[in-house]
């Protein structure tokens, strides 16, 4: 499926979702987009080995199947995710998107907000990290009769989960048979709340085929390849983080370094040590990154590998864009526009040189 990026998906210099969809080879489920390579997929910053694309595919295809058996969950089950940001979260997001109706939530939300969200979406189970949730969530789960499914991160591989769900599949044939229950192109795989900027938060369901087209459009617009490595410090309960920082690297065979939270000094340590080539953030984060660069006296050699800085969620002021350009001297600064209901909407071409400041979304 990676060969889709070897063909020209543009029409008159533009990407059109309908045309991109017409050019996609036939596929049964999201497993078709996970490459069978030993190159890193998701990396942590805690010294553990990265999970490879092959290991990621095996986890989604086989190990995660056992969760269905032990907890009596099946196709269409609504599974909420309340996992701390890190390498495990994107892996679990991808697995849930492939198997269930995935409902990512903000693990840092107040208990009342979590209760309300779980009730509204009708969650049947919640994925939580063992030792990383409190009694309030346990009480909410009992109140709403929702299963809490504990996951335990591997001590050795960032992103991998210890297989504590149940016994492993007895054979490859069994795993293949169960994979028929994976979400197909016409199945709803993702349900997200809008940000509520126009009033009450709304629920937005997204089909697998819409996820695929959106991610392919993003990756094609940015020219992402297996040589690219991003740096994630964004929350992953919004469509932007999921499409850009989880799925785009997987589809293209690239990689993503997963920070636990945003810290501008840790960001600089990470992108230099891990040889990152791009990152996505919001304006307030960009400003802190620029300020930290000045404080640390970051050199042009340290940022030479960054070829792309992506902005979304809020308007990128022309002054902030210029500051970013002066900091990341070899990078294209890309102000993008999207909504939960439509991801993506617009993105400048990868060679954009800030020649139309303030025009994003117009």
UniProtKB/TrEMBL annotation:
Transmembrane segments: none
Start and end residues of each AMP-dependent synthetase/ligase domain: 38-362
Alphabetized InterPro entries for the sequence: AMP-dep_synth/lig_dom (IPR000873), ANL_N_sf (IPR042099)
Domain of life: Eukaryota
One of the protein's GO biological processes: fatty acid metabolic process
GO MF annotations in UniProt: medium-chain fatty acid-CoA ligase activity
Name of the protein this chain belongs to: AMP-dependent synthetase/ligase domain-containing protein
Native organism: Cymbomonas tetramitiformis
């Amino acid at each position: 499926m990676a060969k889709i990026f070897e063909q020209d998906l543009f029409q008159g210099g533009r990407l059109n979702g309908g045309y991109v969809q017409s050019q996609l080879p036939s596929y049964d489920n999201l497993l078709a987009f996970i490459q069978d390579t030993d190159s890193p997929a998701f990396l942590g910053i805690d010294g553990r080995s990265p999970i490879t694309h092959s290991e990621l595919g095996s986890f989604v295809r086989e190990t995660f199947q056992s969760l269905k058996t032990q907890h009596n969950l099946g196709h269409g089950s609504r599974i909420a995710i309340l996992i701390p940001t890190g390498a495990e979260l994107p892996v679990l997001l991808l697995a849930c998107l492939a198997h269930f109706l995935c409902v990512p939530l903000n693990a840092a939300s107040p208990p009342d907000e979590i209760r309300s969200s779980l009730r509204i979406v009708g969650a049947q189970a919640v994925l939580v990290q063992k030792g990383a949730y409190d009694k309030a969530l346990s009480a909410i789960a009992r109140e709403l009769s929702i299963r809490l499914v504990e996951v335990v991160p591997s001590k050795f591989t960032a992103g991998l989960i210890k297989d504590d769900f149940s016994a492993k599949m007895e054979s490859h044939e069994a795993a293949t048979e169960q994979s028929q229950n994976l979400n197909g192109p016409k199945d709803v795989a993702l349900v997200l709340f809008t940000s509520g900027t126009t009033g009450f938060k709304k629920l937005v369901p997204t089909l697998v085929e819409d996820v695929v087209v959106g991610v392919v459009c993003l990756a094609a617009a940015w020219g992402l390849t297996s040589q690219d490595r991003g740096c994630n410090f964004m929350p992953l309960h919004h469509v932007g983080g999921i499409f850009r920082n989880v799925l785009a690297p997987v589809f293209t065979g690239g990689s993503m370094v997963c920070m636990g939270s945003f810290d501008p000094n840790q960001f600089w340590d990470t992108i230099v040590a891990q040889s990152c080539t791009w990152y996505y953030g919001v304006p307030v984060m960009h400003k802190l990154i620029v300020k930290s660069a000045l404080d640390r006296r970051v050199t042009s050699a340290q940022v030479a590998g960054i070829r792309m800085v992506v902005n979304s969620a809020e308007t990128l002021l022309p002054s902030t864009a210029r500051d970013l350009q002066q900091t990341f001297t070899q990078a294209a600064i890309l102000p993008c526009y999207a909504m939960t209901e439509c991801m993506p909407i617009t993105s400048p071409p990868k060679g954009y040189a800030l020649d139309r400041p303030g025009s994003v979304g117009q």
